[in-house]
UniProtKB/TrEMBL annotation, chain A:
Keywords: Ribonucleoprotein, Ribosomal protein. Pfam families: Ribosomal_L6e (PF01159), Ribosomal_L6e_N (PF03868). Belongs to the eukaryotic ribosomal protein eL6 family. This is 60S ribosomal protein L6. It comes from Lentinula lateritia. Coiled coil: none annotated. CDD domains: KOW_RPL6. Residues 28-88 are annotated as: Disordered. GO terms for cellular component: ribosome. Residues 6-46 form the Large ribosomal subunit protein uL6 N-terminal domain.
From TrEMBL, chain B:
GO terms for cellular component: cytosolic large ribosomal subunit. It is found in: Cytoplasm. GO terms for biological process: ribosomal large subunit biogenesis; translation. Component of the ribosome, a large ribonucleoprotein complex responsible for the synthesis of proteins in the cell. The small ribosomal subunit (SSU) binds messenger RNAs (mRNAs) and translates the encoded message by selecting cognate aminoacyl-transfer RNA (tRNA) molecules. The large subunit (LSU) contains the ribosomal catalytic site termed the peptidyl transferase center (PTC), which catalyzes the formation of peptide bonds, thereby polymerizing the amino acids delivered by tRNAs into a polypeptide chain. It comes from the Eukaryota. Residues 9-36 form the KOW domain. InterPro entries: KOW, Rib_uL2_dom2, Ribosomal_eL14, Ribosomal_eL14_dom, Translation_prot_SH3-like_sf. The keyword Ribonucleoprotein applies. Gene3D superfamilies: 2.30.30.30, 6.10.250.2270. The keyword Ribonucleoprotein applies. GO terms for molecular function: RNA binding; structural constituent of ribosome. This is 60S ribosomal protein L14. Belongs to the eukaryotic ribosomal protein eL14 family.
Length: 238, 136
């Protein structure tokens, strides 16, 4: 029923003849050449033990169901909904200074670099300026300011994608004994991978040179954002 | 009127500041008084069209056109306004300047607000140092 979308389960939009017309059946049925499949025989002869069982019996290959439902089972409606790819807010362009509103770095002002495949925004503090590393954020938890950093020349490596930020798959389960004795001990700190640190530095160096072109912008990024008395975000310009 | 403490009156020629509506923040001139609630105002130099306006939504300014005849039309009002230089008088008044400054501060973006904060800090620091130098 590809052409005839289902109105309700089991009922198509078009009649049989309309579908036939749409399919172009007047041209004749399509001839497809499928590889010949050997039909499985419906019955199999099996040898049966026991003296009074006649030695052999013809048995169906697939058993008939023992249970038939008394009523027709309703076909569930197929959902044709698909998730829309998220759209970037028009006020956010590469180089826009964003204010983070949620998470560990809430209140920090960061620079937007690009939108990732998943729709999340790739931002950097830069790390050297305000301690915010290369990070993914949801644009819903962000205020876009009208301040922009000139990022014409920046080239982001292809490494920076969603996979870059994925958690490393956990190594094989530890033995129960090891786990038992480990309890109470502080967890071993894993060193930050050198490759990621290098990438952060590389991105930041170009960023910082661009930021330094504007007076006070470094100070601005270093400071945190907040509301004081009599300030209402919906009345303020960002 | 010498025994009255009132200085600003609702009168023909009085320059008024509009407090609400699409022309809020602009000035206009009273051309005619309709009743104790409304007047006909007109602001040909401030692009306020001639209309009736309730006193409730306007503020009287100290400025007034001295020789405006009652019920003048836009052309006459414009002539009088230009002759007396009322718009420049208004723009040079402390009131108008303060309003402009408030408006300007309100329209600043986040980075500009931050820059203002830095400038204010600098000014405070300068004052503090100057006072200290004088005391010593």
């Amino acid at each position: 029923m590809a052409r005839s979308k289902e109105l309700v389960p089991g009922v198509g939009r078009f009649s049989r003849s309309q579908v036939a017309a749409k399919r172009g059946l007047y041209k004749g049925l399509k001839k497809s050449e499928k590889p010949a499949v050997e039909p499985t025989p419906e019955t199999v002869e099996k040898t049966i033990g026991g003296n009074n069982n006649g030695e052999k019996r013809i048995v169906p290959t697939s058993k008939a169901p023992r249970f038939y439902s008394a009523e027709d089972v309703r076909q569930p409606k197929k959902s044709r909904k698909t998730a829309k790819p998220s759209q970037l807010r028009s006020s956010i362009t590469p180089g826009t200074v964003l204010i983070l509103l949620a998470g560990r770095f809430r209140g920090k002002r960061v620079v937007f670099l690009k939108q990732l495949e998943s729709g999340l925004l790739l931002v950097s503090g830069p790390y050297k300026v305000n301690g915010v590393p290369l990070r993914r954020v949801n644009q819903a938890y962000v205020i876009a300011t009208s301040t922009k950093v000139e990022l014409e020349s920046i080239k982001l490596s292809d490494e920076l994608n969603d996979a870059y930020f994925a958690k490393p798959s956990s190594k094989g389960a530890k033995s129960a004994e090891e786990e038992f004795f480990e309890e109470g001990k502080p967890k071993e700190k894993e060193a930050f991978p050198a490759s990621k640190a290098a990438l952060q530095k590389e991105v930041d160096s170009t960023l910082i040179t661009a930021i330094k072109k504007t007076e006070n912008l470094v100070k601005y990024l270093r400071s945190t954002w907040g509301l004081s008395k009599g300030q209402y975000p919906h009345q303020m310009a960002f | 009127m010498s025994d009255s403490t009132f200085k600003r009156f609702v009168e023909v020629g009085r320059v008024v500041l509009l407090k609400s509506g699409p022309y809020a923040g602009k000035i206009a001139v009273v051309a005619e008084i309709i009743d104790h609630n409304r007047a006909i105002i007109d602001g040909p130099t401030t692009s306020v069209p001639r209309q009736s306006f309730p006193y409730k939504h306007l503020t009287l300014t100290p400025l007034a056109l001295t020789k405006l005849p009652r019920g003048s039309r836009s052309g006459t009002i414009k002539k009088h306004l230009e002759k007396e230089g009322t718009l420049t008088k208004w723009n040079n008044s402390e009131w108008a300047k303060k309003r402009a400054a408030v408006e300007k501060r309100r329209s600043l973006n986040d980075f500009a607000r931050f820059s203002v904060m830095l400038e204010k800090k600098k000014r405070r620091d300068g004052v503090r140092k100057a006072v200290k130098a004088l005391k010593a």
